[in-house]
Structures are given as C-alpha cells and as structure tokens.
Amino acid sequence: MPSALIMRKGKQMLRRTRIIWFCIFIRLAVFCVSWWAWQKSFHLKTLVSNGETVYEPGFYYSSPSGPLHRTAFRRIQAGHLRQGNKEYIQEYGGAYPTEAENTLKERGYEEFFGQLMHYRHYQDKEIYVYDNWYEEKLFWQIFVVSGETVKEFQVAKTETFDSVTNSTADDKYIYLQLNINQALNGDNMVIVIVRIEIATGAQETYRVEAKDFGNIISRRGSWFDPRTERLIALTYGESRQKELQAYSFRTGEKKTIVLEKPASWVLASEDGYLLVNANSGRIIFYAYDLDWNPAPEKDIEIPLVNIADVRRLKPLASRQIDESVHLADGIVYGCIEGENALWYYAVDLEAQKVVALWEVQHPKGKLYLQSHLLFHKETGCE
After folding, report:
1. Within the chain, where are the H helices?
2. How much of the chain is helix, strand and coil, in % rounded to 5?
3. In the chain, what is the greatest distance between 2 CA atoms, to the nearest angstrom?
4. For residue 44, which phi and psi values (nearest 5 degrees)?
5. Quick count: other Cβ atoms within 10 Å of Cβ 192?
6. Model confidence, pTM
7. What angle do CA 102, 106, 111 make, to 5 degrees?
8. Phi first, then psi: what are they for 279, rounded to 5°?
9. CA quadruple 214, 233, 220, 75: dihedral positive or negative?
10. What values do phi and psi take at 33, rounded to 5?
11. pLDDT tens digit string along 298-355?
12. Rounded CA separation 123/381 (Å)
C-alpha cells in the first residue's frame, strides 16, 4: 500500500507539473502572438515629449487604389496612439473626414455639388472646394462656413478637367492654385492663382506658364506666397539638380536658386523662408530673406543622434513619402519616414530644441502614408 500511495502521489505531482508547464507554454504563446501582432500593427514609442506643443499629429494611410483599397487613420493624443474616431477620404492635397460635409447639410445644402476636392478647417471657418466634373460643369463651387453663416462662390473653368491643385486661406482671402490646359496635347499648361476676397467675393487672377518652371518635384511642391505675390516651387533642372524657382507676379521676373545642399520642403518664416532638410540624423533649416538671398547666420541645425538611435530608422524604400512640414506658433512639425517606421518631430525654432519626437511603426499590408494632419489639442481643429 505505501508503494502504491507513493506511485499515486508521484503521478499527481507529474500531472500538476505538466499542467504548470502547459500553462506557462500557453502564456508564452499568447505573449509571443500578442508581441508579433503588436509589431505588425500600429504602435507608438515616445522618445521625447515635454507637453510644450499646441498641436498633435494624425496620420492617414491608404493602399493603392483598386478593388481591395484600404485606409487607416491614427492620431497621437496625450502620448497615446489612438484609432481615429472619424473616417477619412483621400483628396488631392491630403485627406478630409467623411463627416466634413455634414456641416453644409445641417445648413440645408444637400444638393449634389460634385466631388469635394479640398477641405480646410481653420479655427474660424471651414472651406470646401467642389469640382462637378461628373456633369461637366465649367466652374468650381466654393463654400465658406463661419458659425451659422455660409458664403458661396464660383470660379470659372477653361475645360472640364482643369484641376485645383491646392487651396489655402487667411483672414481675408482664399487662394486657389489651378492647372489649366490650354491645348489638347497638354503642352501649354498654365498655373493660375485665384485670390477670392471672403467678404465680397471679388476675384483676382495670377497666371504663369508651367513650362517656365521645369519639373515640379511633387504635387504639393509649389505654393503661392501672398506676402510677395510669388509662386514658389521646388523643381528639378535639366541635370536633375534640385532647384528652387520663385516667380514674381508683380514684376514677371523669375529667380532660380540651384540648391547645393539638399532640401525637401519650403516654409514661410516670419521674415523670409526656411528650406527644410530632415533625415534620421538631424533636421536642418537653411534661412533666406524675402528676396531669396541666403542668410546663413540664421541657419538652424537640430541633431537627433543624441536623442534616438538613428540605426533604428532604415532608409525608406517604398514608392511614396509625405515630406510636408508645418510651422505653427514657432514650432515646426514634420516626419522622417523610414522603411518600417517614421519619426514625427516637433522643433522649437527659437529655443532650437526638439520638444517632441515619436516613433510610429507603419501598418502592414501595403498601406502607405499619404498625409499627416495637425489637430489643436484643445479645440480638435484640423
């Protein structure tokens, strides 16, 4: 009997041991699967964050268009990466929330105005630019919503498929940048800036032939500066050397600056311009005055090597990159995109320091970053 009891207790101990090891194995398996899934999905790593920024970024990803077209939107809020509470639709210059048109519908504008090409949400107004190419309407429809007031404008087209490539606004005006085909073969493309006075609807038009600019680098690589009435564009010259073109609508003169140092974006600073060059090791701002004379004494270089391991960010090899940079309240916001993740930075220009730096891993499944938006922390305004 004693030996049988010992054998029975031994079997019970062995069974318990197996159960314990089985539970350990299950926990390890769950941990590994969770870790793998976490690695394969969005996740955020905070490298620097001191709460000094007024805005937080959101990221709009989409797959190549087709029957399996997919999108995803994530936003950094209070140090966490959250799934967007709105659905977003890709537009020519970025993305806009699907609920944006509800503001117009709530005010009785439920008619079909065509495709919403551009949507801008400022603190004091919302701006809509529609293109009704479905019905071959020869005008763009623009709405400005401010509180309970809705203003409506129309801008004439030359051809049905002329396009609005950019739209911005300030306190007094809306600025539309158009591409106009004046010949069926497309060899006579004209860049047109239409300035619309919000108070009266009065329009002023600026025109320049696109061939005078060479090869504009990206669809968002040119913009109108109302301070000097110039069209600014990053281009490639005949030797594929990067250049900056500044065309004055006041004088008809064009200034070409061959860039000896790399730059991917142009910012309007308080007293001039900044050319931005951001990579995994540093962020450099090359300063120019309003006449595009270099001001090297105002150049700013922000090293990142002392903040994060630059080897973590492998060079980007995908087909698309969002190089846009924003300047708001003295803080520059932008991203450095790598193959598997991106670094999103916020730099205080006056203090010349990084006030926020996050690492966001890309989603899998051939989703590409199309654009990033800024959201005001308090108002949520885009």
Report:
1. 2-40, 102-106
2. 15, 45, 40
3. 111
4. -120, 135
5. 19
6. 0.81
7. 80
8. -140, 180
9. positive
10. -65, -40
11. 999 999 888 888 777 877 766 566 778 999 889 999 999 888 888 999 999 999 999 9
12. 6
Given a contact cutoff of 8 angstroms between Cβ atoms, the answer to whether 61 and 368 are in contact is yes
Per-residue burial over 257-270, b = 16 or more CB atoms within 10 Å of its CB, e = otherwise: eebeeebbbbbbbe
Centroid of chain to Cα 173:
23
User: Which range, of 113-117, 185-189, 315-319, averages the lowest pLDDT?
Assistant: 185-189
Of residues 185, 172, 176, the one with CA closest to residue 157:
176
Query: How far, CA to CA in Å, does 65 sit from each of 40, 69, 71, 366?
Result: 22, 5, 10, 11
**In the structure encoding, which two tokens stand for residue 54, read together?**
């007024």
- Look at phi and psi of residue 362 and say left if phi exceeds 0, alpha if psi is from -120 to 50, else beta: beta
Q: Rounded CA gap, 302 and 352, in Å? A: 7
Query: Residue 127 corresponds to which tokens in the numbers above?
Result: 């701006």
169 residue type, one letter: A
Whether the CB-CB separation of 201 and 153 falls below 8 Å is answered with yes
- Hey, what are 49's tokens? 């964050």
Cα of 66 vs its chain's centroid, Å: 22
Beta bridge partners of 116: 130
The residue behind tokens 């989603």 is: 363
Q: Are strands 326-328 and 300-303 parallel, antiparallel or unpaired?
A: unpaired
Q: DSSP states of 195-215 as a string?
A: EEETTT--EEEEEEEGGGG-E
- Residue 296, classed as helix, strand or coil, is helix
Residue 14, token pair as written in the block: 């062995």
What residue type is assigned to position 380 of the chain? Answer: G
**Strand partners for 153:** 142
